UniProtKB/TrEMBL annotation:
UniProt xrefs under PANTHER family: CYTOCHROME C6, CHLOROPLASTIC
Keyword Ribonucleoprotein recorded: no
Keywords in alphabetical order: Electron transport, Heme, Iron, Metal-binding, Photosynthesis, Signal, Thylakoid, Transport
Record-level GO cellular component terms: plasma membrane-derived thylakoid lumen
All copies of domain Cytochrome c, residue ranges: 28-108
InterPro entries: Cyt_c-like_dom, Cyt_c-like_dom_sf, Cyt_C6, Cyt_C_IC
Keyword Electron transport among record annotations: yes
Domain of life assignment: Bacteria
SUPFAM superfamilies: Cytochrome c (SSF46626)
Protein name listed in UniProt: Cytochrome c, mono-and diheme variants family
Gene Ontology molecular function, alphabetical: electron transfer activity; heme binding; iron ion binding
Location of the protein in the cell: Cellular thylakoid lumen
Taxonomic lineage from the root: Bacteria, Bacillati, Cyanobacteriota, Cyanophyceae, Oscillatoriophycideae
Family: Belongs to the cytochrome c family. PetJ subfamily.
Amino acid sequence: MKQRLIRAVILLMMMAISLMGIQPAMAANSGDGAKLFTVHCAGCHANGGNIIRRGKTLKLKALAKNHRDTQEAIAQLITQGKNPMPAYNDRLTVPEIEAVAAYVLEQAEMGWK
């Protein structure tokens, strides 16, 4: 009976440990980036545009002009914010920010179609 309990506890611990690594990986996929973008960004940046500052769109040409055409640069902007755009480091986790940045770059490269 005692061995059965020990095995069950070990099995549960192994399952818990294996599940710890799943959440960040899941948060960083493109589908989650799209969902997060819709919730947090699309109000100002629908279809890669910008309703506040027209020249600061998320189109590839504008991203390159503003030195934001890498996933790292986009993630930094999302994290820290700039001018009228607020920082999202207090609302999104690092994996979520990375997922949004990956989604934005992917969409920019495809012309937001």
